[in-house]
Amino acid sequence: MNKAELIDVVAARLGHSKRDVTDIVEAFIEETKKAVIKGEKVTMSGFGVFERQARRARLGRNPRTGESVKIKATKLPKFRPGTEFKAVVSGAKKLVPKAPAGPAAKKAAPAKKAAPAKKAAPAKKAAPAKKAAPAKKAAPAKKAAAR
After folding, report:
1. Treating both helix axes as pointing N-terminal to C-terminal, what angle do 3-14 and 18-38 enclose, rounded to 10 degrees?
2. What are the tens digits of pLDDT across the range 76-118?
3. Going by C-beta distance under 8 Å and a sequence separation of 6 or more, which residues neighbour residue 11?
4. Residue 116 and residue 122: Cα distance in Å, rounded?
5. Dihedral angle at the C-alpha atoms of 45, 48, 54, 60, nearest 10 degrees?
């Protein structure tokens, strides 16, 4: 995924314009660069840490001639992934998508809450306690058969 694809996905998920999302992504990248240049760590819980790494001056070898070459000291950006990010990538933990934020989420959230409440209320009144118990016993048998 490149930056343009990321912008498209985020704009569609949040219901914002591509122009707004582009400005946000660009601002994030720019501010992260500024902080790392200053030597600060940019930490995003669950994702990782962006930081500056200093390398000392050292002697290297030219692989073609075998001659010793002086390598100057330099500073490089470094990213260390967080434990949650590592777990998701390795498959040890599933990525749970969060509900979209913004105007679309506010309209969708009340509809989702109201629909299960209406369905659940009549089921509790109509179903006696004796009928609910056999349904619970049948569910594990279906799971065992599926395995």
Report:
1. 120
2. 999 999 999 999 999 988 887 776 655 554 444 444 444 444 4
3. 17, 18, 20, 21
4. 11
5. 170
